[in-house]
Design a protein that fits this description.
InterPro entries: DUF1232 (IPR010652)
Main location: membrane
Subcellular location: Endomembrane system
Strand order of the largest sheet: 1-2
Order of helices and strands: EEHHHHHH
Distance between the termini: 55 Å
Strand content: 5-15%
Pfam family, one: DUF1232
Membrane topology: Multi-pass membrane protein
Low-confidence stretches: 1-19
Radius of gyration: 17 Å
Shape: globular
């Protein structure tokens, strides 16, 4: 047989205590994002960036956070059009989730407090990676024009 049947994709799941974060959970949150939620993210940029930089498990996402904020700003200003709403909403969900200290696993619990934040960030990054690369390519082209 030359062609194989595709395996059924199982949602990635990170189990923590009695709660689970999976793609369905994050996607449900993304579909509920409104413009006001994106504004909350933008208004709390400094606090979110500080949390990403200072929490050692989240530190690897600090640079990605800067890119996501830059992308949101360029979209808001109209400099970078044609971004799917799903991408904007995914960024907002990921950053709002990181910003919230009382999420599924509260951040103040030593050792496991950031596992759920990492899960949401990882799932969101998987969905929007292509759009982030396109944005970075666009920024590079804009920089070369100047």
């Amino acid at each position: 047989m030359l062609f194989r049947k595709k395996k059924e994709k199982k949602p990635s799941t990170i189990a923590m205590m009695d709660s689970k974060i999976n793609e369905d959970y994050v996607e449900e949150k993304v579909t509920k994002i409104k413009d006001e939620d994106v504004e909350i993210v933008m208004n709390n940029e400094e606090a979110i960036s500080e949390k990403l930089s200072n929490a050692s498990p989240l530190r690897k996402y600090a640079e990605l956070g800067k890119i996501m904020f830059a992308m949101l700003k360029d979209v808001k200003k109209g400099n970078y059009p044609n971004v799917p709403w799903f991408t904007i909403a995914s960024i907002a969900v990921a950053l709002l989730y990181v910003f919230n200290p009382f999420d599924l696993v509260p951040d103040f619990i030593p050792g496991v407090g950031y596992i759920d934040d990492l899960a949401v960030l990882s799932i969101s990054m998987g969905w929007i990676e292509t759009d982030l690369h396109k944005y970075l390519d666009w920024r590079l082209a804009e920089t070369e024009k100047a």
